[in-house]
Amino acid sequence: MGIKVSEVTKKFVRKTILKNVSFELEPNRIYGLLGRNGAGKSTLLNIMTDRIFPNDGVVTLNGVAIHEHDAQLGKIYLMSEVNLYQKRQRVAALFKASKLLYGGFNESYAKQLCEAFELNPKLRFGQLSTGYRTIFKLIMALCLPVDYVFLDEPILGLDANHRELFYKELLDSYSRHPRTFVISTHIIEEVANMLEHVFVLENGKILIDDDVDRMLSQAYVITGPGATVDAYTQGLNIIGTESLGNLKGNYIFGNLNDDREIPDTIQISRMDLQKLFIHLTSEGSTIK
Amino acid sequence: MQFDFTGQEPIYLQVANQIEEGIFTGAFEEETQVPSTTEMSREFHINPATVLKGMNILVDEGLIEKRRGLGMFVKNGAYQLILTKRQASFYKDYVKRIIVEAKNIKLTEAELVQLIKRGFQTNGD
């Protein structure tokens, strides 16, 4: 069950965007797809919805390849920056058209969301601002009867109030009607606690494929006098370091050696997902 | 309710602690319903599975119980359970840390006892 991405490789002219990427999505979970600019996130999501094709590898849904398979593709929706909608069409008409395409659309929920976000369904798509185009696409994503919803930068142009409203509606809708979401965003801090599992894409490869809880349980910051911190963290997986005069902070990803005595002068604290991501994917990071 | 999202403590533990605190202060009275997983998830942008993990800690501790079709309720005697638990961990949670800091700043045992007495006399002012 679920979506399986197997050994997908994608090249554009000379550049290899995705290198032998494999992972699985289970039903009814909320995933995060994180990566720096240019890591290959959008390319990956486009391949997973058959908008572009891999040079190698295959994507299956419940064991059946999705490529050119309408019934399979009807179970997946990708919301992205690309505007696939005709500018002259009205919002209400676009909702209706999707209903035909996907074999269903929760109209009462869409109406409720339009009211909550103050989107006038009589407007033409071309009349909407960047933020309202995003809102329109989010409403589409939440109201279609699909099992897999991919959100590529879902909060583009949204103000703080609308982002807050979107997170609430996403979780509310997910609780009422569980399905799989993949959220790809640079605003990690805001979505961190909604994610159960995270994929970190780095230079076209999957660097991390793990539950958020487990990732964070092995992420530590060790601070104190430089020499003491270095001595204590020697041999551990140091993914980043910061210093301020003689005060030093080493960022560790991996288990601490529990047998080691902890010197009085050092402090061990935790880091959040965003901080962990930054150190894992910054230049010169050592984890491979 | 207030959550610290900087990651010092796993979110599911924070969920458990916050509900426990709510029961202890009487915000959630015994025999009444605690907010549903969906409500908490929606309100604080936390994955429902994480909220449930926190709630299950409290179920295991016997503080709340699931009533089929109705939701989670605070059990009778939950307040007393929390009180007993906190008294049992008071030494580890507070006293030990006070002693460590007192030693760091070179306070004697007598001086520390004096300070604690003062705290009681002035009601913590």
TrEMBL record, chain A:
One of its GO terms (molecular function) is ATP binding. Coiled coil: none annotated. Keywords: ATP-binding, Nucleotide-binding. Residues 3-228 form the ABC transporter domain. PROSITE patterns: ABC_TRANSPORTER_2. Gene3D superfamilies: P-loop containing nucleotide triphosphate hydrolases. InterPro entries: AAA+_ATPase, ABC_transporter-like_ATP-bd, P-loop_NTPase. Pfam families: ABC_tran (PF00005). This is ABC superfamily ATP binding cassette transporter, ABC protein. It comes from Pediococcus cellicola.
From TrEMBL, chain B:
InterPro entries: Tscrpt_reg_HTH_GntR, WH-like_DNA-bd_sf, WH_DNA-bd_sf. Residues 9-77 form the HTH gntR-type domain. CDD domains: WHTH_GntR. PROSITE patterns: HTH_GNTR. Keywords: DNA-binding, Transcription, Transcription regulation. The keyword Transcription applies. It comes from the Bacteria. SMART domains: HTH_GNTR. The keyword Transcription applies. Coiled coil: none annotated. Pfam families: GntR (PF00392). GO terms for molecular function: DNA binding; DNA-binding transcription factor activity. This is GntR family transcriptional regulator.
